[in-house]
Specification:
The structure holds two protein chains of two kinds. Chain A is an alpha/beta fold. Chain A is 36% helix and 26% strand. In chain A, strands 6-7-8-3-9-10 form a six-stranded mixed β-sheet, sandwiched between helices. The radius of gyration of chain A is 18 Å and the shape is globular. Chain B contains nine helices and no strands. The longest helix of chain B is centred in the middle third of the chain and has 39 residues. The termini of chain B are far apart. Chain B has one domain. Chain B is 85% helix and 0% strand. Classes of the chains: A alpha/beta, B mainly alpha. Chains A and B meet through helix 3 of A and helix 5 of B.
Chain lengths: 254, 265
Amino acid sequence: MPEKEIAISIQNLTKILGGRKVLDNVSFDIYRGEIFVIMGGSGHGKSTLLRNMTGALIPDSGKILFNGQDLLKLSVAERERVQRRFGMSFQSSALLDFLNVEENVSLPLVEHTKLSPKVIDIISKMKLSLVGLQGFEKYYPSELSGGMRKRAGLARAIAMDPEVVFYDEPTAGLDPVVCAVVDQLILDLTRKLKLTSIVVTHNMESVFRIADRIAMVFKGKVEQIGTREEIRNSKNPIVQQFIKGELEGPIQIT
Amino acid sequence: MLKYFEQLGHKLIEWITIAREFIRLFFETVFWLIVGPFKDKPVNFKSLFFQMVFMGVNSIIIVFFVTFFTGVVLAMQAAPQLDKMGAVIYVSSLVSISICRELGPVLTALVIAGRIGAAITAEIGSMKVNEQIEALETMAISPVRYLVAPKFLALVIMLPCLTIIGDASGIFGGYVVGTTSLKINAGLYLQTTWKFLSRKDIYTGLSKSVVFAMIIALVGAYQGLKTKGGAVGVGRATTISVVTSFILIIIADCILTGIYFFSDM
């Protein structure tokens, strides 16, 4: 296997929200072409971590390097240019509800490229067929099921042929079979389109189905990073309690 | 005692922050409207047209009813008083001047603040709550350019148009009372309507309505973009939006009237 190239490097990231340290000196690297899963309980900072990477939140201190470039030092215009190489799939899929599926998927293309409407039409049809939604172009988000909306959101995330795709809880609120479908989709897209995927989830089944490497976030810190096997055989009681979903252990729910 | 000053200070800082953000939203919106076309990102024509129909055309009936009956009431209230002085004929000019200068623009703006301001806040607010605003930002699409600018422009175009309709239907309301129950000759009524109505009365009224349109659109958008906390948050934001619009419209009306009719006395 060739030398692993670092796509995103997080260095000493700290974020304070509402007087609380939501992220506390977090550092790790994400390699190109891998599926990197961030798991952890609700309220322990995994979504905040994701939002710092996508640019929705600005960290209080630390660095976020993308291809060696510090995102926080870029001007707004440069930052926007980098952001176009990111795709994001949201927990609530966040499709604009006054646009139909096709218009949603083609929105970034219409806004950021000078492609002719015909080409945009072909691209968005292609992206929709990649997620198995051909034939649903004219449907509005409210007319789709939860799983279909998730997939349409995914199609929008990959519309601009991004290098990195972020997924916020891609399987939350879906039934087990649809979960498996979405997981398979993430795997397929990552391999076929040579993406780097960063997934935030607390669904253990899908973690062990898709992850190349896993980071366990606990109380704003990264508890452990490792491959599927390393995490499964972890000696860390926090990780063990979390992946087994046990009541007794160091994680206390108040 | 110190505690109260502290609280007062905190409130003051909060208000200043809100005012600053609000003014910033105004400049950002105007920036996108003016600079957008040169950056190859003009206002989406389809969405502008859609908003103009929604805000303007669909509001005609409610504006007509409100101003028509105001005209009727004005004429009915004024007639007995003027009758005592034997000046019933001046009902027409009283109605036309007070409608064109004041009641037409203000009542239309208040109706639209209730109808459209609330709709803007509810729409943008629920988009905010459902991560749609964040999705736009992540796609490097400015929500101000994509969502606020078309609504702002549409309302600035449509509110003066609605005000013209409001003025006309208010005058019509007075005309109906004047020519039926007051038995004023129809031709004479219209003649006195025009006689005392100056061009200034109309264009100051219309320029007021442009300012009101900006207030409604920006307050609506601002509260929408600030929404947090699910469905309850959307409800709260909508209420605040309408109340704030109402207050700001009345204050702006007071200031503009001062400028137009008080300064050159």
